[in-house]
Structure of Ubiquitin carboxyl-terminal hydrolase:
Amino acid sequence: MNTFLGFGREHIERHYRKTGQCVYLHLKRHVREKVPGASGGALPKRKNAKLFLDLETNGDLNGDDFEYEDEAKLVIFPDHYEISLPNIEELPALVTIACDALLSAKSPYRKQDPDSWEEELQASKHAKTLVQLDNGVRIPPSGWKCSKCDLRENLWLNLTDGSVLCGKWFFDGSGGNGHAVEHYKETGYPLAVKLGTITPDGADVYSFDEEEPVLDPHIAKHLAHFGIDMLQMQVTENGLRDNDIKPRVSEWEVIQESGVKLKPMYGPGYTGMKNLGNSCYLNAVMQTIFSIPEFQRAYVGNLPRIYDYSPLDPTQDFNTQMAKLGHGLLSGQYSKPPMKSDLIEQVMKEEHKPQHNGISPRMFKAFISKGHPEFSSNRQQDAQEFFLHLINLVERNPVGSENPSDVFRFLVEERTQCCQSRKVRYTERVDYIMQLPVAMEAATNKDELIAYELKRREAEAARRAPPELVRAKIPFSACLQAFSEPNNVEDFWSSALQAKSAGVKTSRFASFPEYLVVQIKKFTFGLDWIPKKLDVSVDMPDFLDINHLRATGLQPGEEELPDIAPPIIIPDDPKDRTMNHFMESLDIDESSVMQLAEMGFPLEACRKAVYYTGNLGAEVAFNWIIAHMEEPDFAEPLVVPAFGGATSSGAAGLGAVGLDNQPPEEMVAIIISMGFQRNLAIQALKATNNNLERALEWIFSRPELEEESEPALDVMDMENHANANILAETGSEGPRIKDGPGRYELFGFISHMGTSTMSGHYVCHLKKEGRWVIYNDLRVCASERPPKDQGYIYFYHRIPS
C-alpha cells in the first residue's frame, strides 16, 4: 500500500523482507460454474454485483456457464493478519479511502489493449437520408480496380454513385493514391464502403464528411442498390471470394501448418504467449531467445539473485523483467495439460473447455518498448529489428560476469580494394546477424515462373481468379555465393590516387559466433518504391558449414592503401565555412533521397531522414520518416548546427583545434536519444571520425564504458582516436567474442506471413528434445511439417569439433 506494486504469493515475502513494507492489499477473483437451473441448463445470465475489480477476464469463460466473484482484503505482515474489505469500523479513514481508490481504479493495461483507442462506432448522420443515383452501376463479385489508376488494393465503393476508387497510401506499404477522397471533394458524396470487408455481419464504412469510420444501419439496402448481396460476401483483401484465393492463403496455411491436427505440448519450455495486438514478433523472438541455454542460465538461473538485488521499482528493471518472462516460459507453471477427468467429461458432453495456459507479457512489452516510437505502438514490427533492439538492451544491462548476447556477436572483416591501384584496406566491425540476399536470378524453376506470370496477367485482364501461386525456388548455395561476392563501393575515394575511383568490398568472418543468426533479406522496395516481400522458397540446410568464409587478413603481395583522409574543401566565405565543411563531409546519399521523394514524401524530410540515419539506405531512412511524420518541423529544411565554436572546456585547454575536435551536435543528440550518456556519445563519435553507424558499433562493443565518468573523456580520447578502426584489439578494448569452427546445426527459425514487415503475422519453430515444435502465440504444438524453406530468420548453434 506504499508503492502500489503488485506481487504474486511466492514473491510477497521477499518484498516484505527487502523493504520492510508490511501492509498489502490482497485481490482475488473466483471463477465458478453456474448452478444448473430446474430445466437442467445454467441459470439466466445476470449482472454480478460481486464484481468490483477492473481485472482482465478470460474471454473463453465469459459465457453463460461461468460466474465471477471478487474478493479483497488487507494483509498485515509478518503475522499475515487479514482484514476483509470493506471494513469502515476497524480501519482509519485514510486507509479506507486509499483502498476504495485502488479497488475502483481502472487497470493500467487497458490503455495497452489493441482496441483501447478505438471508440465504439457511431451511426453516420448520412446513413438514413443517403441519396443513391439510379445510374445502372452493378459491382461484380471480384476483379475490382480503381477507376482512375487501376490499383487493385485498398478499394472503396462510394455508396452514392457506385464509383470504385483507391484510398490513401499507408506506412505499411498498402493503400493507394487517394482518389476516393478526391472524388468526395469533387462531388460531396459522403459514404464509402471498403471492398473486401463486406460480410453477412456488416462492412467497414467511412464517412468523408464526418472524417471517421461509422456504422451504416442500412448497409444491406445500400449495397443491394449496386447488386451486392451481403449474405454471399466473405472478407477478402482483393475482392476475390475465399474459395477463389489460393496464393496468399496457402502461405498462412503452410507456415502455421493449418489443416493438420497438431498435438498440443505442455510443460517447461512449452508455454505460449498471448498476442497483445500485433505483438507476435515479440513472442516469436522471445521464445527463440529463451530456448538458448546461455540466456536461460543468465536470467532464470540467476532469478533469486536478480530478484533480491532488483531496484525498489522492479517494473523498470530490464533484468527483472527478463527473469520474470524467462521463468514464466520455462517453469511449466503456465503450461499444464488438462486433467484426465476433464477430458473424459468433455468427450461425454461433446464439448470443449478451453485450457487456460500461457502468459501475457504486458509488463515486459511495456518496459522493453518504452520510449521507442515503433515498438511502443500496437503496429506490427520487423522481428529482425526487434531482435537487434533486444540485444542492445541486453548489452546495456549486464547480468553477472558474462553477457548472454556474446553468443551472437562476431567480427566481420571488410576488404576494400581500389580497382585502379589494386591496393587494399582491411577493417573489422562487429555484427550479430548474417544477412543473405535473395539470389532471384538463380531460381531453379524459371520456366514455371514465366508460365505462372503469363497466366496471372491473363486472369487479371479477364477479371478471373489468379492461378495457384508458383514460388521461386532459390538454392541456399546461391544466396551464400551472393553474400561472398564483391560489391561496388559508391563514391569510393582512393587514398592511393588521392581521388575518387572505382572500389569493391568483400566481407568475411573474422570470427564465428557460438550461435549464428541468418536473415533472408526477403523485404525490399518494388519499382514503385513501396515496401514488398519476396515470396520465395529457400532450401535452408539443417547443417551448415561456412568455414570457407573465414577471413584471411592481408595476404602476401597485397599492398595497403595509405591511411590518408579525403581532403576538406573549405570555401572562402567564413560565414558558410562551418556549414559547408560539414555538408561536404556528410555527403548525403542523394539516390536514397530520391527513392524516398518518389514515394511522395517532402524532399527536405527525405534529406533529413537520410542524414539522421547515417546514409544507411532508403529502407532505414523510410523507418525514420514513419517515426517522425507527426513532428511539426517534419518538412522543414535540414539545418545542421554549427559545431566549430562550441567546444568543451577540455578542448579549449588543448587550444583551438576547431572543426576536428567537437562532433556534430545532431549526431550526439541521436545517440543520447537512444539512452546513452552524452560523454559516451561524444567519445564514440570522436573515435570513429564522426561516423554514426561505426560510433554505435563502437559503443555496443564496449558496454563497460557506459559507467565511465565525464572527467575521463579527454584522457581517453587520444587512445580511442588512434585505435578507431581496430575493433578486435586484444584486452578489454576489443569486443567479447566466442570464436570457434564454422560448422552449425539448425535449431530454430522465425517465419513471417503477409506482404510487409509492418503487417501480417509471425510464428517460430524450435527443435526441442529431437523434434520440431511450433509456437504460434498461445498455441504450442508438435510440428508435423516445419516449413524450413519459408522462414525469415534462422538460428543455428555451433557443432562442437
Summary: The two ends are 56 Å apart (CA to CA).
